[in-house]
Amino acid sequence: MLEVLLAVKNNNVNKIPQYDPSLAEHLRKTLKTMLTNGKYVTTLNITLNDLLNADERGKWWVVGSAWTGNIKDIGSAANINKTNNKNQEELYSEQLLELARKQRMNTDDRRNIFCIIMSAEDYIDAFEKILNLLIKDQRVIVSVILHCCLSEKIFNPYYAVLAQKFCEFDRKYLVDLNK
Q: Which domain holds residue 79?
């Protein structure tokens, strides 16, 4: 055991018994092929409800999947979208939605971010919930946080810590004020 530790300390792998350097080289090459440009993992916004109702709504997340379901009327897709929006609005209280309306949070993204910020337990909870929204334009997140911070009469460090968390997470959340 002491010889193995001395060999590791001195970076002399030839003295380690039963060590096969070809295995490490194979794993390094395999990992390198997995991490080349263009190969990345994307998250899909699929809910359990989508998986359970795949027979009724189709597998929209699979590219090229055809679906010929029983559509009773032409407006059924619109009805499905309305029920999804209604379920999403039921997540937040009426008082919170009214406050969002008063603060001019008129788009779905802005309203959802506002409601999450105001109803979160702490900044980590808010950060994780906002990341799960998968919002395309990160400027919306920054603008809602700044709007909430500026609308308070007394400085609330919650918004600063939340904004700092986003800035530490990714550079795309930094706003260039010179533009």
A: 44-90
* 8 Å CB contact between 123 and 157: no
**DSSP state, residue 103:** T
Read off the pLDDT of residues 30-56 as tens digits, 9 standing for 90 and up. 888 777 666 665 666 778 887 888 777
Shared-domain flag, residues 101 and 168: yes
Q: Is 131 exposed, middle or buried (0-12, 13-18, 19+ CB in 10 A)?
A: middle
Please indicate, yes or no, if residue 20 is contained in any of the structural domains.
yes
Can you give the pTM of this predicted structure?
A: 0.49
Query: pLDDT for 136-168, tens place per residue?
Result: 777 888 888 888 888 888 888 888 888 888 888
> Can you give 36-66 as a three-state secondary structure string?
CCCCCCCCCCCCHHHHHCHHHHCCCCCCCCC
Residues 97 and 173 in one domain: yes
Counts of helices then strands in the chain (DSSP H, E): 10, 0
* Domain identity same for 140 and 83: no
Q: Which structure tokens are listed for 29?
A: 């090459």
